Amino acid sequence: DSGVTQTPKHLITATGQRVTLRCSPRSGDLSVYWYQQSLDQGLQFLIQYYNGEERAKGNILERFSAQQFPDLHSELNLSSLELGDSALYFCASGRTMDTGELFFGEGSRLTVL
Amino acid sequence: EDQVTQSPEALRLQEGESSSLNCSYTVSGLRGLFWYRQDPGKGPEFLFTLYSAGEEKEKERLKATLTKKESFLHITAPKPEDSATYLCAVRDTGGFKTIFGAGTRLFVKA
């Protein structure tokens, strides 16, 4: 158990819909990262937050947004969903802003029909 | 742009047959190279951090080494429970991103 909690574990929705994925980081960790993993793309970095502030952005689509709240939990919002958005979405947390030692949650599997 | 390439894509070994996985990287300045293990349907699990060429880290049957352009994950006398996908990742001096390679899927047969 990494200590990182992600909900929901599974989500099935239709094209055009909007979903929110939630992540609670490990106790004491201030950094939260979001990654997308699909079969043909591997782990793709989306965005990082540190103590409530956005710190780095990867290949995150404009239809996607995220935030980190004062209690350090984070949410990833995916809107106008397309079939190609079907993937595993992982949240990871780290102790500092600049660590590469990340602790991953179990992921949220999104299926868009 | 940072790039991480792992080879082979898949590796099948017999139990006890030692081998190595390769991770080649291109970064403007290396701030760290990381190895993770990922089991099917699970999130990646951190294994090692390497910071400079010549550095080595060991954990049970795994040993990670680092040169200026690549890293190797050596697996000595593997067991079936070592079957997993092994991911390599890098972090550069310019930003806060941790970039992952596509991984090597390891299958160890008893």
Can you offer a commentary on this structure?
The complex is a heterodimer of chains A (113) and B (110). Chain A has strands spanning 5-7, 10-13, 19-24, 31-38, 42-50, 53-57, 64-68, 74-78, 87-94, 103-104, 108-112. Chain A is mostly beta strands and 113 residues long. In chain A, strands 2, 4, 5, 6, 9, 10 and 11 form a seven-stranded mixed beta sheet that branches. A four-stranded antiparallel beta sheet of chain A has the order 1-3-8-7, with no helix packed on it. The mean pLDDT of chain A is 94. With 110 residues, chain B is mainly β. Chain B contains no helices and eleven strands. Chain B has strands at residues 3-7, 10-14, 19-26, 30-38, 45-50, 56-59, 62-66, 70-75, 84-92, 98-100, 104-109. The radius of gyration of chain B is 13 Å and the shape is globular. The relative contact order of chain B is 0.34. Chains A and B meet through strand 5 and strand 10 of A and strand 4, strand 5, strand 9 and strand 10 of B.
Question: What's the gist of this structure?
Answer:
The complex is a heterodimer of chains A (113) and B (110). Chain A is mainly β. Helices cover 0% and strands 53% of the residues of chain A.
Distance between the termini of chain A: 31 Å
Q: Can you summarize the main beta sheet of chain B?
A: 6 strands, mixed
Could you describe the largest sheet of chain A, including whether it forms a barrel?
7 strands, mixed
Rg of chain B (C-alpha, Å): 13 Å
Question: How many helix segments of chain B?
Answer: 0
Mean pLDDT of chain B: 93
Number of helices of chain A: 0
Mean pLDDT of chain A equals 94
Strand composition percent of chain B: over 45%
Give the helices and strands of chain B as they follow along the chain.
Answer: EEEEEEEEEEE
Q: How far is it from the N-terminal to the C-terminal residue of chain B, by CA?
A: 41 Å
The tally of beta strands of chain A, per DSSP, is: 11
Order of helix and strand elements from N to C terminus of chain A: EEEEEEEEEEE
Most residues in contact: chain pair: A-B, 24 and 23 residues
